[in-house]
Amino acid sequence: MTSRDKYVHSQPNHARIDASANLASSTLEYWPSPVHDDHDRLNLELREKVDGLRSLSIKIGDELRSQNSLLGDMAGAFDRSEGVLRSTMSRLSRMAKQNLSSGLCCYTFMLIR
Hints:
This protein is an all-alpha fold. It has helices at residues 3-10, 12-30, 34-97, 102-112. The longest helix is centred in the middle third of the chain and has 64 residues, at 34-97. The protein starts with a helix and ends with a helix. The mean pLDDT is 76.
């Protein structure tokens, strides 16, 4: 380094230039550009939508489990009703085969209807 270089580097103006260069580079690091702002905004919107879809899918799953339980209960009730109807039809068939008076059979069928 020559004596002139030493002199230039020791001057306050050079220090000011370095300080302003450091300020400019630090400003670029801390102040996001409009592209970064858009990216951050879109990222936030996407995250909110994903969270909404996640909660919606959880609610759908809960509803499906509830509906499946209800359908299972209904299937059991239909099975029980089927058993009752079969036994009733069996009794009516036996009664008809015993050749009871036709008036009693008609009366029984009318009562069931």
